């Protein structure tokens, strides 16, 4: 049996409910998805969109990354709710702090990655999650950072410029019709970081709605982290389940 890979389809993986523990005493809820029968070649540490606007660990691009990429690209995918955020997995303790105390949340995720021995961690931030990545990823042992729909609302010019002196890859995926930062403006803002790779996506929107945009975003993630897995297949030769 062959099934088309689209929508709420979860390919085989090991999925584990996990908890993260922050230095300021909070417990955050999350999930780790890893390949079923082999070790992951790299790890995605995902940071979700703005929780006060409905963002959480199940925001669809992150959910589909966890549903597909362990099987398709041998990646481990860590998702979690930042402080005060609720999803079907549960509610993380604490309260939303506009990106400030969330520094502890990012640190807790990286502590988990280190404790589990997960390989080659990459930060993947979406919208508000890109702000956390730009602010705090430099403080941790990550291989690179991928920014999806960065609004650059909370990231200061100094925080942005600091990446110019950091050699780690910075991939910036910008929708053509983004609500906050479109490709031309993004090129100007990120010009402070000479090695930043700007990927404009024709027809894209901030929320990456639709299977075509989902596949494009997942492809750009894999292109940065494990390009040997490309092209991502569109069909799965076996059983799969709804998310």
Question: How would you characterize this protein structure?
Answer:
This protein is an alpha/beta fold and 243 residues long. Helix content is 27%, strand content 26%. It contains six helices and 14 strands. The strands form four sheets. An eight-stranded mixed sheet has the order 3-4-6-5-9-10-11-12, with helices on both faces. It starts with a strand and ends with a strand. The mean pLDDT is 96.
Topology:
Elements: E1 3-4, E2 9-10, E3 14-21, E4 27-34, E5 42-47, H1 60-73, E6 75-80, E7 86-87, E8 90-91, H2 102-116, E9 121-126, H3 128-136, E10 144-148, H4 157-162, E11 170-175, H5 183-189, E12 197-201, H6 211-225, E13 235-236, E14 241-242
Parallel strand pairs: 5-6, 5-9, 9-10, 10-11, 11-12
Antiparallel strand pairs: 1-13, 2-14, 3-4, 4-6, 7-8
Helix pairs in contact: 1-6, 2-3
What distance lies between the first and last C-alpha atoms, to the nearest angstrom? 19 Å
Low-pLDDT stretches are: none
Give the CA-based shape: globular
**Rg for CA atoms:** 17 Å
- What would you call the structural class? alpha/beta
Mean pLDDT across residues: 96
How many helical stretches? 6
> How many strand elements?
14
């Amino acid at each position: 049996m062959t099934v088309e890979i689209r929508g709420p389809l979860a390919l085989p993986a090991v999925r584990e409910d996990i908890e993260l523990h922050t230095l300021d005493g909070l417990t955050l809820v999350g999930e780790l998805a890893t390949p079923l029968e082999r070790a992951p070649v790299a790890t995605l540490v995902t940071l979700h969109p703005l929780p006060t606007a409905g963002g959480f660990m199940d925001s669809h691009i992150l959910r589909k990354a966890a549903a597909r990429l362990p099987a398709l690209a041998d990646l481990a995918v860590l998702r979690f709710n930042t402080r005060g955020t609720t999803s079907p997995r549960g509610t993380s303790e604490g309260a939303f702090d506009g990106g400030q105390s969330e520094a502890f949340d990012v640190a807790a995720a990286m502590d988990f990655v280190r404790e589990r021995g997960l390989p080659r961690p990459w930060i993947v931030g979406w919208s508000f999650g890109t702000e956390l990545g730009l602010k705090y990823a430099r403080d941790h042992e990550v291989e690179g950072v991928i920014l999806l729909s960065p609004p650059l609302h909370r990231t200061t010019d100094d925080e942005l410029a600091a990446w110019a002196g950091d050699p780690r890859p910075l991939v910036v995926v910008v929708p053509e019709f983004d609500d906050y930062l479109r490709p031309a403006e993004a090129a100007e803002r990120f010009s402070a970081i000479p090695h930043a790779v700007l990927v404009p996506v024709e027809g894209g929107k901030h929320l990456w709605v639709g299977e075509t945009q989902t596949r494009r975003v997942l492809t750009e993630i894999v292109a940065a982290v494990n390009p040997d897995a490309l092209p991502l297949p569109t069909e799965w030769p076996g059983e799969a389940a709804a998310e």
